[in-house]
Amino acid sequence: MNVHCLGGGGYYATDDTHTVCFMIPELGIIIDAGSGLFRAIDLVKTDDIHLFLTHAHSDHTCGLAYLNLFYKKTNVKNIYIHASEFTLSTINNIYKPPLIGSPLKFHPVAFQNEEKVITLANGTIVRRFPVNHSIECYGYRFENGSHTLGFITDTSSDENSEYLENIVGVNFLIHECYLPSGSDEKARASGHTSSLGLLGFCKKAGISKVWLMHHNPSGNREKILSEVKKEVHGAESAIDKAFHDF
């Protein structure tokens, strides 16, 4: 089973990198709706799409502007957006006419406080957990049979992160890494993760395979990856249109 990087960048798109959006076509799961969302149209394999949003910031939601294209260009029958009440309210208030041509067509699935784990009709178990950012933000763990995937973005992770236990044992982790070592305080202040913080997080959680994403559009991607790979040899940089098994 593969997860596809449709957009691995943070903040704003660049010539070769769209903003955050990942997809597991076999399960009909999309994670975040950055500017790379349009690429999912060519990968659709299911009647239903489950879109899980981490938070409401525009680099993770701007692709919603063309969400309705899925109904026109694929055989998708239903799109479910899973998010917090705050995030759903925010996107409903922003992504509507006259900003876009027609109202978005989707089924909202608001998080319930007492329900941290849900099971989709295809048997996929999805666990959500809060992470620390400037606004309400969540990480995810996806399980389907022997396939396990963790997804964390827009937070300052390190070996002391309270949510670390949620991704222990996953086959593959997709995690943001925005700044190199030496910028740890700057990373924490901005609600992002440095290479040093990610190293500590992966070592404590026993993670050997990680895709670095939410790349800083100002650069440093290669430097950050080299710093992480020194101790997490299975670390790779998520490149747009690439895919990885898990």
TrEMBL record:
GO molecular function: hydrolase activity
Span of domain Metallo-beta-lactamase: 29-215
Xref: InterPro entries: Metallo-B-lactamas (IPR001279), RibonucZ/Hydroxyglut_hydro (IPR036866)
Name of the featured protein: Sulfohydrolase/Glycosulfatase, Zn-dependent hydrolase
